[in-house]
Amino acid sequence: MRRVRPAVSLSALLLSALSQNAHAQVVRVGVTVPTTGPAAVLGIGARNAIALFPKNIGGMPVEFMVVDDATDTTNSVKNAKMFLDQKVDLIVGSSTSPQSLAIVEAIGGSETPMIALGASARIVAPMDDKRRWVFKTAANDSLMASAIIKHMVDNRIKTVGFIGFADAYGESWLTEIKVLAAKSNIRLVSIERFNPKDASVTAQVLRVIASRPDAILVAGSGTPATMPHKALKDRGYTGKIYQTHGAATADFLRVGGKSINGGLLPVGPNLVWEQLPDGYPTKANNARFVPAYEAKYGAGSRSNFAAQAYDVLPILEHALPIAAKAGKPGTREFRAALRDAIEGIRNLATNTGVINMTHSDHSGLDERARLIVRIQDGKWVLDTVSAKR
Amino acid sequence: MDISIFSVLAQDGITTGAIYVLVAMALVMVFSITRIIFLPQGEFVAFGALTLVALQSGMVPGTVWVLIVLAVLATLLDAGAALRAGRRHTLPRIVMVGLLPALAIAALASWAAPQRFPVLVQAVISLLIVAPMGPMIYRIAYQRLASAKILILLIVSVGVHFVLTGLGLLIFGPEGSRTEPYLDSNFVWGDVQVSAQSMLVLATCAVLILLLALFFSRTLYGKALVATAMNRNGARLMGISTLFAGKLSLFFAALIGALSGILIVPSTAMYYDSGFLIGLKGFVGAILGGLVSYGLAAVGALAVGLIEVFSSFWASEYKEMIVFTAIIPILLWRSLASGAREGEE
């Protein structure tokens, strides 16, 4: 697999060199995503979404160079620097938070706008000279966490148990939940960790059940998140079980089967767009993206990761015409204008939510970027839509 | 902790431990007969489990292709050796013996996959696919190095482990899978609940260990393996083929590995690389017996299972650390007990 990469980057180089001569007006976007390695599921979703983009965006020809970084921070940085050498107008990537953060650190000061696909709030906050040029399309963990806490409050849940991954994902959720639960007078009665590849989580599950919580939150991503869920059911736990948005994959449903029925989790709107009320701000975008995506990559292939990458399109549709007034693509003026145009986005409905960028908030998503779904027989069923309209 | 929690934990620990016992037994057997520290043992666990998952979903498992490729490679090596030795007339026989069984198994698997046979039949087919990989891997990777130092054999093992893990990713993909429990009922003894699934695991382990013990003590082939383990040169002088002993031991290793995988896959999602950690924990258990004693290895592996479960109850964030730190007192005890000795042989 590794041997493919130089070939890909070389062809990207050649392509860009060719196109540079052919038409100078083309907006060039460098995309680095992991299409191999542990986060391949995320990167492939992003690559597939970008492959759906039209040739002309906002009246300008746009060319995307998609390069694999193999879920490796060093490679992401290398790719980003290669894009800088080619004077791209925008960098998109990478799919995971550590990779995105590495790129932010490495290309700071180069004055090239970047749209990160990672979720961590630290990619765009706290605002500084480097992050001035960085935007992201994925919702913050805290936004998802607050949806869960709100749902708990609405269902009169007073005590909650936590079973999370013994890694950065689990810890980040634990931090969010601790703060938000304390604010809502929900008591965190037990905290247990597990490893994604553990053979058994019975012990952790027993300990959590022994603390008799009204609800239990499982903070894991992908298929391993099914394990505590199933163990809880096996041990006869009858309270509510929450999952995090990291679990929202088709494989999670497949492996979980019947045992995860009734589980609740916050997701982006595109997963259940058909069930959304008409007039929900993201519905038009979802209707444009999800069917096109599933027509090409198979029914049920929709994912949050693909949707977040697809949101680069509405952002560019809005920002490119404005930036074009300031200069020609490939110039410093154009890049600066593109940055300003993205920062100036107000009330832009995308796939994941509604974006309101400000000088200090370069994510710009609000409560409309998530809803709570219930798992029912291998399907996501819309449970609650956030009130704010 | 009350009695019901304790009993559930103990049960869980013994069930997981039983899997580690099987893996530890295989490691001890392979090491004592061939001196190979068989790191790829865990890969057979994952292969067995995921092959069964594929069969259950009605697909031809990718391991069939691995089997065919391994068979072709092993046969080519055998044929090359025969040609170099000038025994051209043995070629048809080598090709027959090398390729036909693998092709027959592949045909059987392809035919059986869409038929949705009961799980027992599918498990047997999975074993048929995975177990023959053992001797083939011995032929391809280890045979010519059979008399090399332990360290060199270990390095080869590392290589084989990486190749098999990579193949696992290629044929099974990065996502995990689980099967429905084979038996879905519980027995209740007073406060204590025992799941039929874990009884099945324990019973299978016990039967397997008994069969192996009988094989080693009652059959000619088994005695030949024991003799090889005791003294390679002596055994060779008595007309026992150490080559055959090596192949046979890896056959059993692959068989035991695949069986462990099949036993564990209803209770936990298996990934292409899940086997490594299971193999490593079996190894920690086997170390207790110094990689030569079956009894101590079994005790050690069972202890690893129990330590794992109880440490994840009391300190889940340090679980992995506690399990692998257990190897330090074991090593200390062993080195004190056996006195200072050279590491080799």
Polypeptide structure, described:
The complex is a heterodimer of chains A (389) and B (345). In chain A, 40% of the residues lie in helices and 19% in strands. Chain A has 13 helices and 15 strands. In chain A, strand 12 (348-349) and strand 13 form a beta hairpin. In chain A, helix 2 (40-51) packs across helix 11 (304-310), helix 8 (226-234) runs parallel beside helix 9 and helix 12 packs across helix 13 (332-343). The N and C termini of chain A lie far apart (46 Å). With 345 residues, chain B is mostly helical. Chain B has 15 helices and two strands. Classes of the chains: A alpha/beta (389), B mainly alpha (345). Chain A binds chain B through residues 38, 40-41, 166, 192-195, 197-204, 206-207, 210, 222-224, 226-227, 235, 251, 254-255, 257, and chain B through 5, 8-9, 12, 15-16, 19, 174-178, 180, 264, 267-269, 271, 273-274, 277-278, 308-310, 312-313, 316-317, 319-320.
Would you list the SSEs of chain B in sequence order as H and E? HHHHHHHEEHHHHHHHH
Biggest beta sheet attributes of chain B:
2 strands, antiparallel
Pairing-aware structural class of the strands and helices of chain A?
alpha/beta
Strand order of the largest sheet of chain A: 2-3-1-4-5-6
Strand content of chain A: 15-25%
Strand content of chain B: under 5%
Identify the most extensive interface between protein chains. A-B, 29 and 31 residues
Give the overall shape of chain A, derived from the CA principal axes. Answer: elongated
Strand runs of chain A, count: 15
Give the helix proportion of chain B (percent range).
over 70%
- Termini Cα gap of chain B: 47 Å
- Please compute the radius of gyration of chain B using only Cα atoms: 21 Å
The DSSP helix count of chain A reads: 13
Radius of gyration of chain A: 21 Å
- Low-pLDDT parts of chain B are none
Total DSSP helices of chain B: 15
Q: What composes the largest sheet of chain A?
A: 6 strands, mixed
Q: Which class do the helix and strand fractions of chain B yield?
A: mainly alpha
Which blocks of ≥5 consecutive residues of chain A have pLDDT under 50?
18-23
Number of strands of chain B: 2
